[in-house]
Amino acid sequence: MSTSATEIEAPTDPGTTAEPGVVDSIERTEFIRREHLGTAGPISAVPDEATIARWRADYPRWRGRHWTYTAGNDGVLLRLRPVNVARAARRRPA
Fold this sequence. Notes:
It is a single chain. By secondary structure, the protein is an alpha+beta fold. A 4-stranded mixed beta sheet has the order 1-4-3-2, covered by helices on one side. Strand 3 and strand 4 (78-85) form a beta hairpin. Helix content is 21%, strand content 20%.
């Protein structure tokens, strides 16, 4: 997955998180884009129950619904990680 030189990384992008145990959030539109590209999806697409159980233990703030691939430190290797997708803003009736 290549990024253009003008693209700015979002501060909540899982690839930029340095702290272990911190699960990041991405906007729903970003999740939909990644899902379309095959680099994100629902947790039901991960067949390895041991991975899901480890994520639940390692990332207590993870909602347990989505995953994404993120670039490793070298920018080449992709890593499978849990991710929270920002909830849609609720609009109050006028």
